[in-house]
Predict the structure.
Amino acid sequence: MQNRTGAARRRYLGAGLAAAAAAAATAAGAARAQAWPSRPVRIVVGFSPGGGVDAMARLLATRLTEQLGQQVIVENRAGAAGLIAADVVARAAPDGYTVMLTDPSMIIARAMGVAQAPDAFGAFTPVASVFRMPLMIVANNDFPATDPASLVRALQAAPGRHSYATSGVGTVHHLGFEMLKRSTRTFVVHIPYRGASQIIPDVASGQLPLGVVSATAGITQARAGRLKALAMMSPDRLPGMEAVRPLSDAVPGFDVAPSLFVLGPAGLPAPVAATLSDAIRRVLDAPATEQTASAQGAVRAFGTAQQLTQAMNRDAELFGRVIREQGIQAG
């Protein structure tokens, strides 16, 4: 009887200690969240200043500074399609003071077997989805199409005759057009460029028939009459671009646009990630943020950490399938 009573007492004490430990851990996490941030936060961007991702990072940083009461700065670590920045963040201390604004390029690089590409799911903590960056297919003024349906007909009528340019092998621009080719059973030659600043002049001059660029870059030149805006690669609507029809008009369900999202290093405390995510949500809920982003070709697309994880898994599956089926290899 005494032994049973002693055993019961030990079990009771053990349960009490475990509960106390759990409560202490919860309290410690809450304290970290309340204390964070106590110094400047940096958002690392894997692309050069002046581009679309950089512009959205700076918009986010300015508004987050107001929300968090600490300066949020943007640090550009351009190169290797964003992988240099990814490595910086993956190696950073998981304290919330170094995070990254990125797009699916790291997920794509991993799917293509790029050796230095970190594991987006193992090396990082998802924080929040932020924006979508709609893409546009543009053509020189002599190209025999004016909208999505006539574009598909023109490609089907002349297999291998036409070519298209994107900002590089393995970009969402590239994989999106490859998805179009697969869906419409067409053959179009891909020509990788360094970016829209090179693509647009060559399309406008007739050296290239087609290009895939950001919606903002494309519509500016289309309005000036230098080229034609044939189709949006997603159903996203931006002011001043309502006349450009989505590819889904001709290819039902077609929807490809780079998403921008925030990741922290693996091991980022959940309370800190939640505090940052909530601040991002408040920033994106502000009408002024949405208006500024829209003017720069971005669409508000907030998602929680859980929703971001689901979206990243969808991207990995979707782009991985395109890479395998189209036989795409890293350059």
Observations:
- The chain has two domains: 38-132+258-326, 135-249.
- The radius of gyration is 24 Å.
- The CA atoms of residues 113 and 330 lie 8 Å apart.
